[in-house]
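Fill in residues.
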C-alpha cells in the first residue's frame, strides 16, 4: 500500500512540474535546478531512477534547458553502470565499488541497498529528493539548499528506518559532489599537528582514492575537513575555475576524493567509516552533517573570498551581522596556571591601558588546578587563588571598561579530581582495559545523558553566578578507548555521532540561556575548526604557535578555508617560546592584525615604550578591523613562496584597503618586489596612509585604483623580519 502512495505522489509532482514548464517534452519533472550567486547546480533522475549530477559550475542563463540524464554505460563487466554514473547519493548495492553514501547491515545479514527516486519537494532555494530502497522501507531524503548570495550548496541526507526492525548503518555520508572527466585536476588541502597546523598541500588527482580524515573523535589538525580542486594549468590566486567543499562536523570525519574508472572525480564526505556504526531503531531517522560545496571562476583566492563571505553572512551564530571581534587580552602565556586575584587585576589594569576591550583569564582558576595534573572536572573557583570568588576580579575588569572572559575545558577530567573520584564511569573507556591519558586527562563521555546534563548544568551555573561575556572552550587531547560500557553492545559505536551531537546541543542550549555569551572554539590550538562548530561559536583559536613569523604561514593556510573574522591572533613575547626567534613588537602586532587581534604577552615585563607602541597599534587596528574582519582578502605574496608575504583586505563598501607586507630577510641589495593591489575601483582616487614602514620616496600620495593595481607600489623593506602596513582611503 505504501508503495502505491509514493507512486501517486510522484505522478502528481511530475505533472505539476510538467505544466509549469510550458508543456515541452523534455520531462522537466526529472531535472532540478538550483541557482545562487554566480553558480548553477543541476541534478536529475536518470532512466534507472537514480539521482544524477548534471551540472555544477558558473551560473547559466535561466533559459538554458537540460535533458533528462542518462545513466553511465557499463565500461566492462568489471565496472558496471553504478560505478560510471555520477550518482548524488548511492546505497551500497548494484555492484558499487566507489565510495558509497550509505551502507547498511540488516538483522538478517543482508547488506544490499539500492536507492531509487520516490518523490521530491522544492522551494526557491531548496530541494529534497526522497529515495527509497527497491524493496525495503528505507527512505533517504537527499537534501539541498543553495545560498542565494554565494551559490554555496549545502548537502545533507536523512535516513529513515521504517522497516519494522532495527538495522546498523555501517557507513553514511552527507552526499557526493561530482566533477566531470578531466586529466589535470589538482587537489588542495591542509595537514598539520599541534603548533604546526594549516600546512597547505597540493597534489594532482590521480586514479584511486585519497582520503582526508580524522579518527580522533573530533575534527583534528592532521587534516581539516575542507578541500579545493582546480585545474593544474589554472593555478592562480585570482583566475580559473575552482570547486571547493567543506564538511560541517566536529566528530571523526572523512572526505574521500575518488577518481573513478572514467576519470570523473567524486567527493564524498561524512562521519568517518573507520570503527563506525550507528544502530538505528525502527521509526528513527539519522540526519547527516552538512556538507558544503561551492564554485568560483576567480581562482583559489576567489573561492576563499566566497567561503569567507558565506561564513560571515550565513553561518556564524549572529550571521548576517556577527559582532566585530573585540581586542582581547589573554593571561595564558603570562601566568600559565599561576593565576590569582591580585595578579590578574594588575594585568587587567595594564591591558586596559593599551586599549584592550576584553580581559580573559585562562587556565588555573578552578579546583586544585596548579598544573595540568589535577582539577579538570571541578569547575568551582579555587578559594586560595580567589578568596572572594571571581566577583572582585570581574568588577575590576568592568570598572576598566572591558568585559570578562574565562577559560574552560568542560569535556575533560583529570583522574586527580573530585569529579573522577565520584564518577570514574563517566569517561570513554573499554570495560576492564587501561585508560590512556593525554596531558594527564581523560575524555568525558558526552554521549551519556547524565554527563551531558552535568556539563550543561555546571556551565550554566558558572554563567548565572558570574558576569561572564566570553568562554574560551578548550579541548586538549583526542580520544582513546572509545567505549561506552553502559550502552548495549550493538549501540557501542553510536558514541562517535552522539558525542558530537551532545557537544553541539550543550553549545546551543548555553547560547539560548545566555544570548549575549560569546564562545571561542579552541583545541590546544586549531584542532577543532570546521563549519559545524563555527555555526555555534564566535571565533576560533588557530594554533598555540604564537611566533609571529610562523603565524604568517599558519594564517595563510587558515584563510584558504576560514575567514579572518574568526581567526584569533595574539601578540606574545619575544623571543618566542616556539622558535626562540626575536621579533620586534611592531612585527608581532602587524602579523596579529591580519586577523582578530589579541594580546597574550606578559605585560608585567613591558617597558613604557612598549606600552606606547601597543597603544598606537591597537588604536590603528580599531580603525581597520572592520576591513580586515569583513572585507575581501587578497593573498598577494605567499610566505610559502619566498622571502616575502603580503595580504590586502578591501572593505565591503570599497572605501578602504589595508595592506600588510612582511620581509623575512633581504639579500644582495634586492628591493622588496613591487606590490600590485587588487579589488580597487579603477577610476576612483585613493589616498595613501602609511601606518608603519616606509614607501619608496617617489610614491604618490594619491592615485587612481588603476595605478595602485597596475603600476603598483614599492615598499622600502630591508633587513631581517621587517614589516610594513599601509592604508588606501577612497576619496
Ligand atoms: C591550550 C590552549 O590552546 C592554550 O591557549 C591554553 O588555553 C592552554 N590550553 C591552557 O591549558
Amino acid at each position: 500500500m505504501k508503495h502505491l502512495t509514493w507512486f501517486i505522489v510522484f505522478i502528481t509532482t511530475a505533472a505539476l512540474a510538467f505544466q509549469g514548464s510550458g508543456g515541452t517534452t523534455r520531462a522537466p519533472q526529472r531535472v532540478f535546478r538550483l541557482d545562487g550567486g554566480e553558480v548553477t547546480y543541476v541534478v536529475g533522475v536518470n532512466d534507472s531512477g537514480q539521482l544524477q549530477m548534471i551540472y555544477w559550475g558558473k551560473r547559466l542563463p535561466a533559459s538554458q534547458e537540460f535533458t533528462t540524464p542518462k545513466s553511465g554505460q557499463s565500461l566492462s563487466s568489471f565496472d558496471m553502470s553504478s560505478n560510471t554514473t555520477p550518482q548524488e547519493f548511492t546505497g551500497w548495492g548494484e555492484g558499487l565499488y566507489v565510495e558509497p553514501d550509505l551502507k547498511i547491515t540488516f538483522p538478517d545479514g543482508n547488506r544490499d541497498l539500492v536507492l531509487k527516486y520516490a518523490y521530491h519537494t522544492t522551494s526557491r532555494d531548496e530541494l529534497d529528493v526522497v529515495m527509497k530502497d527497491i524493496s525495503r522501507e528505507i527512505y533517504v531524503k537527499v537534501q539541498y539548499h543553495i545560498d542565494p548570495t554565494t551559490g554555496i550548496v549545502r548537502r545533507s541526507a536523512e535516513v529513515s528506518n521504517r522497516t519494522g526492525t532495527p538495522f546498523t548503518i555501517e557507513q553514511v555520508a552527507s552526499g557526493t559532489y561530482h566533477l566531470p572527466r578531466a586529466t589535470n585536476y589538482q587537489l588542495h588541502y591542509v595537514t598539520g599537528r599541534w603548533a604546526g597546523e594549516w600546512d597547505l598541500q597540493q597534489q594532482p588527482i590521480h586514479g584511486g582514492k585519497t582520503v582526508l580524515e580524522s579518527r580522533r573523535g573530533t575534527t583534528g589538525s592532521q587534516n581539516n575537513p575542507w578541500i579545493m580542486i582546480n585545474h593544474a594549468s589554472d593555478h592562480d590566486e585570482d583566475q580559473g575555475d575552482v570547486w571547493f567543499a567543506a564538511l560541517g562536523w566536529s566528530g571523526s570525519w572523512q572526505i574521500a576524493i575518488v577518481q573513478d574508472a572514467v576519470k570523473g572525480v567524486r567527493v564524498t564526505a561524512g562521519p568517518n567509516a573507520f570503527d563506525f556504526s550507528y544502530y538505528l531503531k525502527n521509526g528513527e531517522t539519522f540526519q547527516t552533517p552538512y556538507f558544503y560545496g561551492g564554485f568560483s571562476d576567480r581562482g583559489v583566492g576567489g573561492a576563499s573570498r566566497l567561503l569567507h563571505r558565506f561564513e560571515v553572512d550565513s553561518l556564524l551564530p549572529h550571521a548576517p551581522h556577527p559582532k566585530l571581534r573585540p581586542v582581547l587580552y589573554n593571561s595564558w602565556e603570562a601566568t600559565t596556571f599561576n593565576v590569582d586575584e591580585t595578579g590578574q587585576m594588575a594585568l587587567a589594569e595594564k591591558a586596559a591601558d593599551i586599549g584592550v576591550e576584553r580581559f580573559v583569564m585562562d587556565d588555573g582558576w578552578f579546583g586544585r588546578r596548579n598544573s595540568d595534573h589535577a582539577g579538570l572536572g571541578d569547575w568551582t573557583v579555587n578559594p586560595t587563588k580567589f578568596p572572594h570568588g571571581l566577583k572582585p576580579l570581574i568588577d575590576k575588569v568592568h570598572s576598566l571598561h572591558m568585559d570578562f572572559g574565562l577559560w574552560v575545558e568542560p569535556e575533560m577530567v583529570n583522574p586527580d579530581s573530585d569529579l573522577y573520584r565520584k564518577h570514574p564511569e563517566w569517561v570513554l573507556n573499554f570495560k576492564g582495559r587501561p585508560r590512556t591519558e593525554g596531558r594527564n586527562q581523560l575524555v568525558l563521555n558526552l554521549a551519556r545523558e547524565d554527563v551531558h546534563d552535568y556539563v550543561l548544568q555546571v556551565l550554566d551555573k558558572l554563567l548565572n553566578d558570574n558576569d561572564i561575556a566570553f568562554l574560551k572552550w578548550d579541548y586538549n587531547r583526542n580520544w582513546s578507548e572509545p567505549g561506552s560500557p553502559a550502552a548495549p553492545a550493538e549501540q557501542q559505536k553510536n558514541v562517535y555521532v552522539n558525542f558530537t551531537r551532545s557537544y553541539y546541543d550543550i553549545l546551543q542550549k548555553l547560547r539560548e540561556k545566555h544570548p549575549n555569551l560569546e564562545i571561542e572554539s579552541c583545541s590546544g590550538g586549531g584542532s577543532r575548526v570546521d563549519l559545524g562548530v563555527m555555526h555555534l561559536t564566535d571565533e576560533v583559536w588557530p594554533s598555540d604557535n604564537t611566533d609571529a613569523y610562523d603565524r604568517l604561514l599558519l594564517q595563510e593556510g587558515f584563510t584558504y578555508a576560514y575567514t579572518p573574522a574568526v581567526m584569533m591572533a595574539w601578540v606574545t613575547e619575544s623571543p618566542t617560546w616556539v622558535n626562540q626567534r626575536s621579533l620586534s613588537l611592531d612585527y608581532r602586532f602587524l602579523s596579529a592584525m591580519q586577523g582578530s587581534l589579541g594580546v597574550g604577552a606578559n605585560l608585567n615585563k613591558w617597558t613604557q615604550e612598549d606600552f606606547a607602541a601597543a597603544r598606537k597599534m591597537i588604536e590603528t587596528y580599531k580603525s581597520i578591523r572592520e576591513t580586515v574582519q569583513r572585507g575581501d582578502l587578497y593573498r598577494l605574496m605567499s610566505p610559502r613562496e619566498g622571502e616575502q608575504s603580503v595580504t590586502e583586505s578591501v572593505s565591503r563598501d570599497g572605501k578602504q584597503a589595508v595592506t600588510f607586507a612582511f620581509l623575512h630577510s633581504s639579500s644582495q641589495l634586492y628591493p622588496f618586489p613591487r606590490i600590485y593591489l587588487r579589488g580597487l575601483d579603477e577610476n576612483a582616487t585613493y589616498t595613501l596612509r602609511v601606518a608603519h614602514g616606509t614607501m619608496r620616496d617617489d610614491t604618490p600620495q594619491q592615485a587612481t585604483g588603476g595605478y595602485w593595481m597596475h603600476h603598483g607600489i614599492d615598499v622600502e623593506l630591508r633587513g631581517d623580519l621587517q614589516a610594513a602596513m599601509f592604508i588606501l582611503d577612497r576619496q
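Confidence is low (pLDDT under 50) at residues 1-28.
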